[in-house]
Each structure stands twice: as C-alpha cells, then as structure tokens.
C-alpha cells in the first residue's frame, strides 16, 4: 500500500482524511500529545484496520476521540466530576474512563468488550474530523505495537509506512507524551496513566484527591503492559555514569561522569525543564532505536510534575521484553 504524507494545512488534507475515515480506513493524524492512528470507532472493520496496522494485541482497548462533551455524552455516562474535568482540560491531554452507555455506538472491538470507555477531546484536526464525521475516532498512538510513540510524521512513516494510506503532518507534537488517563469517581480521581496533565493540576481543578489504582487492578488500564516504548537496545535508568560503548540520554546542565566518551548523547532539556524533556523524550528514544545501538544510559529525571509521566515511560522502555 502506498502511504501519502501531506501537511495538515494543505487544502485537500481534511477532505481526503474525512473520505478515508468514511470508507473505514485507519490513518495517522497529529494530536498535541503524540500522533494517533485513527479510524471510525463505531465501525468494527475500521477498528480492526487499526489493530492490523499496529500488530496490536486485540485485548487492548482504544481511546475514543471526540470534539467535546456533547459527543462524549452520547458514548458514556458523563457524571459531574467528569464534566468538571472536561471543562478544565478539554481540548487537551486528558482521557476520562467512563461507564459505557447501554446505547453507546462505540464498537466493542474498540472497548475490548469492557463496560467502560476511554474518551478524550484532543486539540486540532482530530476533533474537527470527529465533528465532520459525526462519530468518535478510535486512535491509539501511531506506532507498531510495543514501540516508541511517534511525535513527528516522519517517525510515523518509518514505523507504519506501507501499512496505512495517509499521514497528515502537523509538525512535532507539542506535549510529546500521551494523555493522562483518569477514572473519575464521586469523591476521588483514580490515575490510571500519568501523562500530559500532572497530578497537581487534576487535584486543583476538582478539589479531589488523586489516587493510584489498587495494586491488584492490573487490568484497570489493560494497555499498561510492562514493556513498552522499547528501542532495540537495552535501557539503563538513573545512570550516574556512562559506561564504555553506551549512548546517553541526558537531562539538565551537569555532565554525567564518562559523558565525554559516550557513543552519542541527546539532552532532553539542557535547561532542566520537564515540559521540554517530555516533548523531546520519544524523539530521543527513537533517535537511539537502531540495531547498532545496544546500550542506552538515561540520567536521573526528577519525579515531580511531568517527571512522573516521563519516568513511567522510561521504566517501560527499560523493562524486560517478552520475545514476540
Ligand atoms: O495521548 C494519547 O492518549 C494518545 C493519542 C493518540 O490520543 N493515544 C494513546 O492511545 O496513547 P494508546 O492506545 O496508546 O493508549 C490507550 C490506553 C491504553 O493503556 C489502554 O489500555 C487504555 O488507554 N484504555 C483504553 N480504554 C480503557 C478503559 N475502558 N479502561 C481503562 N483503560 C483503558
Ligand atoms: Mg501507545
């Protein structure tokens, strides 16, 4: 299959995207978090095209992207806490896991048969296309399953070129990390995945405590597989030195001992900004995702604010890999 890559600003970009979505295709689209591989969430064949292009395990449910609260209310029961969160953060990097409505049009392949559905209103073209289509767009990150999430159109092309018909190029993703996933409850927020909106912002917007899922609730966010975002080489975290032959992902102004001898260095943010580091993280992992790069050391990243999400992604990139 030929994969066309065109700027999202081109006059024919949105009409072509809309025609492909109406025809049940899966196409790659920019969002503020990462690039998504989108298809009509109400069409089982279209959703299956996403799984096929990604090579993704089918039990893993997808996020449904909507223009805003009105469409969300047709898919799920939106309670008052969810409404407050949507008003505070949509459009933006927040996904809400809500009870599925009994008359929800979302195809069960997109929810993996769960009784809940994950919904987010992103910034930009995805919301406009969902509005024009009149239906939600299911979209996981536009990478082959288990690999680094793409934050540029070129990165999507490298991973999925030949497997999808169209990529809209919106430039580098501004947030650079996937959305925060929250399950709102009456008197608390359960943080299922750290992401582009940090704990403090969630608490401030609602006045509610933000708690972690119970440790045995491994399936509360079934996509949270341990190994993920993995480059080809082995990743060593919290490195306070660089060993011979290692590549280094650095953070902040200080030099890591041995850094001068590193095989290659990418600094996520020389100024020590966590927002800048978040936006550069996946590009750094992708830059070092090459067969000849066997070992990658990562300097310690502070854990506060967006550091929680950055460290979560790094732990998964470093986790032992299942052989698949
Ligand atoms: O920023 C993002 O969220 C990006 C962009 C494209 O929107 N999307 C993204 O999708 O990261 P994906 O498929 O890579 O991750 C979706 C996560 C998975 O961990 C999945 O298990 C979880 O959302 N999820 C989906 N539906 C769920 C549900 N009903 N309950 C709990 N977790 C759910
Ligand atoms: Mg993903």
TrEMBL record:
ATP binds at residues 56, 60, 116, 141, 149, 193, 229. One of its GO terms (cellular component) is cytoplasm. It is found in: Cytoplasm. L-threonine binds at residues 33, 65, 120, 139, 179. GO terms for molecular function: ATP binding; double-stranded RNA binding; L-threonylcarbamoyladenylate synthase; tRNA binding. The keyword Glycosyltransferase does not apply. This is Threonylcarbamoyl-AMP synthase. It comes from Aurantimonas aggregata.
